[in-house]
Amino acid sequence: MTGEHILDVRKLSVGYRSDGGYIDAVRNVSFKLGREKLGIVGESGSGKSTIGRALLRLLPTARITAESIRFEELDLLNISEREMLKVRGRRMSMILQDPKFSLNPIRRVGDQISEAYLTHFKCAKADARAKTIDMLQAVQIRDPERVYDLYPHEVSGGMGQRIMIAMMLLTDPDVVIADEPTSALDVTVRLQVLNILDRLVSERGIGLIMISHDLNLVRNFCDRVLIMYAGQVVESLKAPELSNAQHPYTQGLLAAQPRIGGGRTPLKVLDRRPEWKEPLEVQA
Amino acid sequence: MKSVNVKNLTITLGEGSKAVTILPNVSFSVEPGECFGLVGESGSGKSTILRCMSLLFKQWEGEIRLGNQSVRDMPLIERCRTLQMVFQDPYGSLHPRQSVRTVLSEPLRIHKLDRQKERMERAITEVGLPVEFLDRYPHQLSGGQRQRVAIARALILEPSILLLDEPTSALDVSVQAEILNLLADLRARKGFTYLMVSHDLAVVDYMCDRFAVMQAGDIVEILSRDMLEGNKATHPYARQLIDASLEYDSAI
User: Fold this and answer.
1) In this structure, what are the phi and psi dihedrals at residue B101, rounded to the nearest 5 degrees?
2) Distance from CA of B149 to the nearest CA of A (A)
3) ipTM above 0.85?
4) With the CA atoms of A94, B167, B183 and B113 taken in that order, what torsion angle do they form, in degrees rounded to the nearest 10?
């Protein structure tokens, strides 16, 4: 961990409306983020994506409560939507899972990237275009001039995801939330995309929150890992120490992972215990 | 138990100038009771092979033999009782407005099988779900439970060959373990022949005896499972793929 914390979340709870009340999808989650790579792992429905969305206030109908959410000098809980517009996509941005669904199918990818820049900075279109092409180069797209004028259906999945990364890093944000950025990609392409993301994040000193269900990825890529179960953080660990996990859920997840050369004994299956859902306090 | 023989399988999709040859010329064979994996990047034609075998694509050329019969010569009823398929996405492959009972009873009705209730109950217990689940709808099931229902639907006609198209890639690690255990256990008990498409080599290593590495529609190399460790592949693409997976896997 280097420097001060960019993001400080205390006791964040997010409830989704359901008939006659709210159901808490995230309960009492606290963490701090410096200029580092923080992984959030958990199974589907454990609330990991909800945290990312809540931080960017992308959940208009949900009930978000917290003791405090501090982002640099801002108090994200209480600022107006007008101010939030200046944060979202500019100082804090989000890379989504599937480039096929997150890019507008009827606009050229380059225009979509420069739009991100033009929204936040006053400059000529030609300048934005130049910036975009530089950024496409930075995410190792060969021939960025040509790619600028392509439509989303003309690019491959790996390239689409690099375009998303370019779009999100163009405004030089302080925090990037990556929600399963590579789960739609093949192993070979996945490593490429991760390496690009890794390099850019370290060079620019961005705080990265990596949301994933892939333990391998998180342990290879992140500095710290939060493990979530049923809306709570059950454990917080340094990534290299993941194998020393104490919580039975984390241990179960590790054991359930098949590995190359791992033998044919039946894989360990999680024995879910009701007490894992009981309130607990993990400081990260 | 039946063997599978694929010989000179060729398929071209599209017409005229837009025609694309997806599989130029693919041949491989699978022993009875073997689990055979197909790996490769997206778009390399893995799923297309399964779709040709199950005649979801019909315009292919070449020969596919199940046991000693060509799949084209098999009457529909017999083909469906020999070969069944489990699809990738358990959220998309079950009809949202049909209960599990409807899903499972339809094949039984088409094939005019007796003891329907008993067969349904057996199929659902075999995949590790309680009998009461017959009256549930897909939205009342989790992803893993849906995939179990999809497997039960494939099992109910007692086929000898199962085609598995990335059966766990939409599932979490913990649920993936359950499904892989179930598939391994079913194979041990019933002696199915599996053809499994996957892009996760760790899964392939756990399930398969041999696997074919595909690139742009071609099988570049067929490897046995023990050649994964230390990467004993010879073809450059196969080596690259295995290296990437080993690197990815290495931390554990």
Assistant:
1) -60, -45
2) 19
3) no
4) 140
